[in-house]
Amino acid sequence: MVFKVGGDIDAYCTKCRLDTIHVVVALKPGNEGPKRVECKSCGGQHMYHAPKLPSRTEAPSQPAVVNRSAAARNPPPPKPPKAAKPAAAKAAALSAPAGAGAREWLRRMEDLAHQGGTPIRPYSMRETFAAGDPVSHPKFGKGVVLEVIEAKKCAILFEEGRKVLAMGGA
Ligand SMILES: [Zn+2]
């Protein structure tokens, strides 16, 4: 790679504490690489530091969601003896007798998955939620807000059932 003064380069900015685009200000002798760079983000000049993360130009980034769903569609080859087990176990779980709450929970989770893009917010009693909001709870896992009972109370459906939790508190 040939570097030139005035050219753009990805570098680690010591002020932004991030990889940002920099302009090369000075080169090392013999064009060995950039010596001094200016951050396009904060305008600060500093010694060149290699980016902490792989260069954006080398690895065209795909949205993480796409990567995840691609991975889900093409799981790594399962170990031979247990090849059919995971799917069978899942099917059994789906058809197993479950409480109405669990079935409803599953349906709501599928609905949310189909809607896509609705961010799941971590449950906190300091947050305020609205009916239909997907939440994740450290103990109960993923759930969806069924209704707001009163200003500081909401009912959330988790896999193990409906829970009334505080919200909007101090
Ligand atoms: Zn900077």
UniProtKB/TrEMBL annotation:
Q: Which domain of life is it from?
A: Bacteria
Annotated stretches, region: Disordered: 50-95
Biased-composition ranges for Pro residues?
74-83
Q: Spell out the Low complexity composition-biased ranges.
A: 84-95
Name of protein: Uncharacterized protein
Which organism does this record belong to?
Nannocystis exedens
